[in-house]
Amino acid sequence: MSGSGTSNTKTVCVTGASGYIASWLVKFLLLRGYTVKATVRDPDDPKRTEHLLLLDGAKERLKLVKADLLEEGSFDSAVDGCEGVFHTASPFIANITDPQRQLIDPALKGTLNVLGSCAKFPCVKRVVLTSSCAAVLYNARPRNPDVIVDETWFSDPEFCKQSKQWYVISKTLAEEAAWNFAKEKGMDIVAINPSGVIGPLLQPTLNASATVILDLINGGKSFPNASFGWVDVRDVANAHVLAYENPAASGRYCLAERVAHCSDLVNILKGIYPSLHLPEKCADDKPFAPKFQISKEKAKSLGIEFIALEESLKDMVESFKEKQFIDF
Predict the structure, then answer these.
(1) Predicted confidence band at 8 (pLDDT cuts at 50, 70, 90)?
(2) pTM to 2 decimals?
């Protein structure tokens, strides 16, 4: 997606534009010639905006708009005049004390507020929603190497409440609400459901998945006993653009280059950076969490060719160095 030189006069909106995925999405949209209205909570905070303002094409075609997920009508001015809306804004908080207030309300009400604004403007032709494999994977169905997870899977909020997986619940309820709203209003929505997102950072702050990798290389004593799908942030941003531009795109798209246990990540990092002090042991003595498969068929039909996990990890570590999160 490196500057395909397509000339667009179209205007699109990206919510939560300072985030990890959204920053790459804004970059790719500008490279493709779009005018981008980017919502941020505080347009005057350089931590949220400086990296966006430095992007190619930003001077001419990037407009920052202040908006708040929990404020109804807050996105009206951002969405007005846009043909496409990319809703990426959603909270991820590590220390949860009040899941309803901190995670579920902003995800659920935020999605409905953004879609409510979209419904007011007939100019909006399609909404691309950043959901997550969190809204796909977590239910009572077994996951083992023979199991192939695909877009027909949905997480079960009741099942997730038992294990207090509040982030999963927030993403599941938000996506479900979006589909119901779209059906009721006859709105064209496509959902992108990435796995754990890795790869280089554009923003100056650490996001949740970056922290997982940084903890491994910053002298972590052990690695988590967990298997996740992993996908490069550039593929995720690219998938959003393709889902918007391809008239035949519909429904949900799961994104994972592969499913890997955290021990696999450690081994890949050891191979690339032999001098790193990486954790030798697992966080518990249980058998390793089984790997499973996430179907790539639908993503490939969109035109995604996945960047290899090894390359994503290397590029992520190099961007940590560049941003001085690590020094070796």
Answers:
(1) low
(2) 0.95
